[in-house]
Fold these 3 entries.
Entry 1:
Amino acid sequence: MSEKDAALLVIDMQKGFISECSPLYIKGAEATVPACAAVIDHCRKNSIPVFFVTRSYNTDGSNVENTRFEAWLKGGKPLSPGCAENISAAMPEEFGCDPRDYHIIKPRYSAFFATGLDLVLRRLGIGRVILAGTTTPNCIRTTCYDAISLDYAVTVLSDCTSSKTAEIQESNLRDMANIGAEIIDSEALFEN
């Protein structure tokens, strides 16, 4: 994999998805934080653009997906202004911040759906996206499929993505490989 025209997309690694007390909790997401942090650091050191693609819900719930609304409402309105810090839209402290980072708020699962991501990537001359974050069957997979449809090469970092079960994770990684995504772990990224 060539990194010279690549960008890292870190998807939905927010407390509202990685905190066990959140109704939107994804089992396994918190365990990927150290690997994600190492990849973020590697990309920053190697001048690979880092995009944090996240969710943010309105306090009235008007932009929450229908399939999540009930859990969101009953569970303290995670990822919304004024919710408890441990279920907020904040990212793990391990990720730090860098003024070169990009921040995209997405309204649905794919990082490309109704966002300016494609425009910014093309302006930067990006030909490959490296995907990390949660959840593999939803946001990672839909972003992967949209990226491939938009003619980007896609690399999915297996140890920087998560699903509710190992079986779901493996099945989705296999499906993405079958449509042309490169599936590697973060150690392989560091070797390039």
Entry 2:
Amino acid sequence: MNQRLLFGLLLGALLGVVCIIGAQIRSDFTQETSYLFAFWYNRVILGLLIGVLPIISLKKAILRGALLGAIVSLAFYSSTEFNDFIGFIAGIAYGVIIETALFYVKKLSNNRLNT
């Protein structure tokens, strides 16, 4: 498994935990386990998708992250009968975060190899 894919999966899983915490707080801790798992898994899929894509410039990566975040999050958002708009917007932000982080992880690893 390549480094970009591994970090994408890890970031997706970590951000999924953040989503679970946010969803629980927004619902006064009444969300079902299946809902929370689906929320987490949606973020893992986002990290996987971004992780398998090639590296591009930072500006394009940010736009691609937002677009992929919207596309992947729309699947979950629509399954909630469009009731979790905050979760949908968070998915867009998380796509940008994952793309940006993976861009800089690659840049740092390239700099380390060149020194």
Entry 3:
Amino acid sequence: MIRVKLPTHLRTLARVDGEVRLDIDGAVTQRTVLDALEERYPMLRGTIRDHATQKRRAFVRFFACEEDLSHESPDAPLPDPVVTGAEPFLVVGAMAGG
């Protein structure tokens, strides 16, 4: 069971409270987690990744085990604590400004 924490605005859009729990068959990667998330919550399609390119949106970051995974390959395996459900996969809305 993969645990996913979404920012408040995406939880509101998906109409979920707290963490989302997903079952992933096969390799657990950013791509498979986001595919499963968008399949279960179709209203999230296009909010985290671009519809056409499937690339991460500019102001969305991914974290796991206190590491920024935003620039990792979407097909790289996620850390074992995420795979086992001990740690969540975090989708975070980044801020910009100055």
